[in-house]
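Morning run. Coffee first, then this:
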Amino acid sequence: MQKHYGHDCELSTFTPLEAFIRSTTTGPIELLSLDIDAAVLLDISFDLVDVRYLSFEHLHLGDARERVLHHLATNRFEFVGQGVDHNGYDYLYVKRGM
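And here it is:
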């Protein structure tokens, strides 16, 4: 947040993404599109969150890129191409074996 809104901006409450998703729906999610930090992706337990397609911004993965891609592969996600971002900044993955 500070990167986008300045150093004076502080987060007063935080809900992990997985907890937010599980509080919103218990059913399967056809497409989850995210513009988030690599640490958030690495924190998602895909055994608890049922996602078919995952689109996420790849520009700022940095040193965590290989860990993110390994996390997705471990959870049966396979790269299929460009995601939903109109600038081409997203990867699109599909979960196999569902």
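The domain at 2-95 is CATH 3.30.110 (Translation Initiation Factor IF3). Good start to the day.
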